[in-house]
Write a structure and sequence with these properties.
Elements (H helix, E strand, L loop, with lengths): L1 H39 L3 H27 L11 H13 L2 H19 L7 H14 L5 H31 L1
Helix pairs in contact: 1-2, 1-4, 1-5, 2-4, 3-4
Length: 173
């Protein structure tokens, strides 16, 4: 009985990953449709196809970029923090509503993917902890949760500071 319960918990934890990303994919898809309709001047069906292609390209590109970062083949220039995102949002807004819709969809999709990284403090890290609990067939202690999440959040804050510093350097140069 204990094993089947553990298997169900593992299955449930793994099932959460696609569900968590699904909202961002659908939102991006829907934001891109009117942007493509206006920019390309095509039909709704053509805009839906362009939107689906763009969503696929962003998902594939984001995972490729993450793979390059983790293997040391990519650099910090491919990342943007809050400052860089604000600058890009301003540029998109100055381009008109279709550009802003396009930017909003792409940003939502990219942030959804990043949020699911198995990094403590993010949703992906929480899903990993649920998976670990399911495999162990018992919960992690409260202290373990505190240490893991605190460490993850501190690393995340440190990374945010470094990325924001790079954003500032990009703006100044």
């Amino acid at each position: 009985m204990r094993t089947s319960c553990s298997v169900l918990r593992v299955f449930h934890a793994l099932r959460l990953w696609p569900e968590a990303l699904c909202f961002n994919v659908v939102f991006a898809f829907l934001m891109l449709i009117p942007a493509f309709m206006v920019k390309e001047g095509g039909s709704l069906l053509q805009a839906m196809q362009s939107s689906a292609n763009a969503v696929w390209m962003v998902v594939a590109g984001t995972f490729s970029m993450l793979g390059q970062l983790f293997t040391g083949q990519g650099g910090m220039e491919s990342l943007s923090g809050p400052l860089g995102i604000a600058v890009m949002a301003g540029q998109a807004a100055s381009g008109g509503v279709p550009d802003l819709l396009f930017f909003t969809g792409i940003l939502s999709l990219s942030l959804g993917i990043m949020n699911l990284l198995p990094f403590p403090g993010l949703d992906g890290g929480q899903l990993v902890m649920v998976l670990i609990e399911a495999l162990r067939n018992r919960p992690l202690g409260a202290r373990a949760y505190q240490v893991i999440n605190f460490t993850g959040i501190m690393l995340f804050i440190g990374l945010s500071i470094v990325i924001t510093w790079h954003d500032i350097l990009r703006l100044v140069s």
